[in-house]
TrEMBL record:
CDD domains: Ubl_MoaD. Belongs to the MoaD family. This is Molybdopterin synthase sulfur carrier subunit. The keyword Cytoplasm does not apply. It comes from Amycolatopsis halotolerans. Keywords: Nucleotide-binding. InterPro entries: Beta-grasp_dom_sf, MOCS2A, Mopterin_synth/thiamin_S_b, ThiS/MoaD-like. It comes from the Bacteria.
């Protein structure tokens, strides 16, 4: 498990799942990230940038996110312990 403390409050563990180019950039399909209690999607994205500098940061700029399989429109949404955060890069299709 990767740990990045954002404050001194009780931590939450979030399961981050990467898809397509996000998976390639992170070098893993899934990981657990420990964040401070009250952490938001925006906080989690910042933590991921710090954990995986380089290519993943560019993917995160264009990515969409799901929390517990629901699309996130507000990155200020708080994450609870055990939440799943899916990182979905833009997909081409037709």
């Amino acid at each position: 498990m990767t740990s990045l403390s954002l404050s001194s409050s009780s931590p939450v563990t979030v399961v981050v799942r990467y898809f397509a180019s996000a998976r390639a950039a992170a070098g893993t399909e899934e990981e657990k990230v420990e964040l401070a209690g009250g952490a938001t999607v925006a906080d989690a994205v910042q933590a991921l940038r710090e954990l995986h500098p380089g290519q993943l940061s560019r993917v995160l700029d264009a990515a969409s996110f799901l929390v517990n399989e629901v699309a996130v429109r507000d990155r200020g949404r708080a994450l609870s312990d055990g939440s799943h955060l899916d990182v979905l890069p833009p997909f081409a299709g037709g």
